[in-house]
Amino acid sequence: MKLTDKRKKAYIMAASVILLFVIAGTVFLLLRNSSGSRNKQSEKQKKEEMYFSLSASDRETADLYAELYELSREEVAEKQVRTKDWKKTAKELEKEFFTIPENKKYQMGKEGYALEDLEKAEELSAKTGRKAMELAKAKGKSSDNRKWSDIVKDSEILTTEEQLGLTKEQEKKLEEQSLGKEDRVEVAILLMNGTYTFEEVMKELGKGKTVKELKKAGKR
């Protein structure tokens, strides 16, 4: 009988210990999840504060870059606060969008992606305005046996003029002025550098001036 009582006490004690461990484990998980949630909220709040620390005009620029490079406005603001220079920020954003980091290429190569496909993705990114990494993932690993023609349609390939910022409508208007491709590219560069507006270019061309003359005048 005494032995039975001892066993009962042992069972009760063991059950109590197990219960304590279960309770302690549950509390730990709840505290960890709560802490993780607070950290995420804190990080999010910091990024939002970083965005709102920018001037009104800088926030507008951040919004534009966020839309252009498919990022959140907070991510753009974070880079701008760090660089304090929109040109440097723009270069970083452009590089991240149109290229794949070398260490990432190495890792993807180990996972089964072909190096030539990763490089092709960068090339097509500049020609289509689509993110290089997204193109690479859409093409998939070598074993997926997908073709680039299934990923990128001919209609998506931008002309050199379009890659430099000209719209199809502007390109068409320049063609109507009998400007060849080389001249259209030069006009796109003049616009990109802020030397002229498109309306000013059309006005000068209407007066009979050549693109060469516009370039020369713009350097003064």
Keywords:
single chain; 220 residues; mainly alpha; elongated
Would you write up a description of this structure?
By secondary structure, the chain is mainly α. The protein contains 13 helices and no strands. It has helices spanning 2-52, 56-68, 73-83, 86-98, 102-111, 115-128, 132-139, 148-151, 160-163, 168-176, 181-192, 198-206, 211-218. Helix 2 packs across helix 3 and helix 3 (73-83) packs across helix 4. It is elongated and about 110 Å long. The N and C termini lie far apart (111 Å). The relative contact order is 0.04. The mean pLDDT is 86.
Give me the number of helical elements: 13
Summarize the amount of helix as a percent range.
over 70%
Q: Classify the secondary structure makeup into a structural class.
A: mainly alpha
Unreliable residue stretches: none
Compact description:
This protein is mainly α and 220 residues long. The protein contains 13 helices and no strands.
What is the secondary structure topology, with strand pairs?
Layout: H1 2-52, H2 56-68, H3 73-83, H4 86-98, H5 102-111, H6 115-128, H7 132-139, H8 148-151, H9 160-163, H10 168-176, H11 181-192, H12 198-206, H13 211-218
Helix pairs in contact: 1-3, 2-3, 3-4, 6-7, 11-13
